[in-house]
UniProtKB/TrEMBL annotation:
This is HEBP2 protein. Residues 1-28 are annotated as: Disordered. It comes from Sterrhoptilus dennistouni. Residues 17-28 have a biased composition (Acidic residues). Gene3D superfamilies: Regulatory factor, effector binding domain. It comes from the Eukaryota. Coiled coil: none annotated. The lineage of its organism: Eukaryota, Metazoa, Chordata, Craniata, Vertebrata. GO terms for molecular function: heme binding. Belongs to the HEBP family.
Length: 246
């Protein structure tokens, strides 16, 4: 057998040491991110399990604004007052979404737990075995009573499938996640920042209802909160959407 030269021995040992160091840093980053999400989760009375470490890390690494795919829409109208944007009227096309309905005690718990399940689906826990990519916004569908004074408990969290997967979406391993095709829809959208909970959502619903010239054209008991920032972020960028009646 040919003897290993000192040079090649150094390179093989050197590269394995580098790999070990990289793995150790990888583990430390994963642990740091998991701890951060766990502390945020505790604030929302949600337990973030250890098996979320890898999906959280994958999502964090791939969460550059340039890598996110925005859900396409056609802008129909912008309503402004004294230079401030009051709302936008948009048309979204027919599309497939991965959806999960949660019924936790609090809205915040439902969106955190629903989002974690969708993260697992996005991060390889699907029939393609691939990372599917982030699309924004992630949306939640909420329902209110007819008087628009209180929210019901069921909340649907939904992820728009990237364009390349629209024809053949990968199947989720989690049977709670359903692939649905939503029809083309006209929405009235208003932006707001900060946390989303029952109080802030009801406030935004009442605010947009007061601004719209013809709120009777929209569904009175079904609304969408569009989130452009992950639920762990403090100063989230959100929108409230009213859905025009079909």
């Amino acid at each position: 057998l040919a003897e290993e030269s000192p040079d090649s021995a150094y390179h093989s040992h050197g590269s394995s040491l580098e790999e070990e160091a990289a793995e150790r840093m990888d583990d430390e980053e994963q642990e740091r991110l998991l701890n951060y999400w766990q502390s945020v989760g505790r604030g929302h009375q949600v337990d973030v399990p250890r098996d979320m470490a890898e999906p959280i890390q994958q999502l964090t690494r791939n969460n550059n604004p340039q890598e996110r795919q925005s859900i396409p829409f056609t802008l129909i109208q912008r309503k402004e007052k004294l230079g401030d944007l009051l709302y936008e009227k948009r048309q979204y096309g027919k599309a497939k979404w991965a959806c999960i309905t949660m019924k936790e005690k609090q809205y915040e718990q439902s969106i955190c737990l629903g989002f974690m399940k969708l993260m697992r689906y996005i991060c390889e826990q699907n029939s393609s075995g691939l990372y599917l990519g982030i699309t924004v916004p992630i949306v939640t569908i909420v329902h209110t009573n007819e008087a628009q004074s209180a929210m019901t408990q069921a909340v649907t969290v939904a992820y728009y499938l990237p364009e390349v997967l629209q024809d053949e979406p990968p199947h989720p391993f989690d049977s709670d996640i359903i692939i649905e095709e939503w029809p083309a829809t006209i929405v009235y959208s208003r932006s707001f920042r900060g946390i989303t909970n029952e109080d802030s959502i009801m406030r935004e619903i009442n605010l947009l209802a007061a601004i719209l010239e013809s709120p009777e054209l929209c569904l009175r008991d079904t609304f969408i909160i569009a989130g452009y920032t992950n639920p762990a972020a403090a100063n989230r960028h959100n929108e409230i959407w009213f859905l025009q009646r079909p």
